[in-house]
Amino acid sequence: MNREDRQQTERAMARKGRTVALVIAATMVIWLVGTTLVPYMGWPARFVFLFDMAAIAAFIWVFVVIWQIWQLRQQLNENGPR
After folding, report:
1. Is the dihedral of CA 58, 62, 63, 67 positive or negative?
2. Residue whose C-alpha is closest to residue 62's, from 22, 29, 14
3. What span, in angstroms and rounded, lies between the C-alpha atoms of 52 and 12?
4. How many CB atoms are closer than 10 A to CB 8?
5. Cα(2)–Cα(56) distance, integer angstroms
6. What's the burial of 50, exposed, middle or buried (CB within 10 Å: 0-12/13-18/19+)?
7. Residue 57 pLDDT class (50, 70, 90 cuts)
8. Which residues are listed as membrane-spanning (predicted)?
9. Residue of 4, 3, 14 lying closest to 72 (CA atoms)
């Protein structure tokens, strides 16, 4: 892997890392606001579970992307130092 390919891979990993961070932060905010609003809005309790399931789905996606980032890092390390 040449230097340019390595830099592109590192940029892709950084981009994925930023996306993961934003998804985690947004998921937590939406989950907290959503579960807090349900009783105040008089919605049925099943809406709390809807927010819970959406948060779980987002975190599963986050773990998949983190796994991909880890795999890319392993490939970079196998190809030697910079």
Report:
1. positive
2. 22
3. 30
4. 12
5. 39
6. middle
7. very high
8. 20-41, 47-70
9. 14
The alpha carbon dihedral of 71, 76, 80, 82 has a sign of negative
| 3-state secondary structure at position 47 | helix
Could you tell me the end-to-end alpha-carbon distance of the chain, in angstroms, rounded to an integer? 10
Q: Which is nearest to 13 in space by CA: 62, 73, 64?
A: 73
Q: What is the DSSP letter of 79?
A: T
- Encode pLDDT of 2-45 as tens digits: 888 888 989 999 999 999 999 999 999 999 999 999 999 999 99
CB-based contact 35:77 (threshold 8 Å):
no
pLDDT for 17 equals: 96
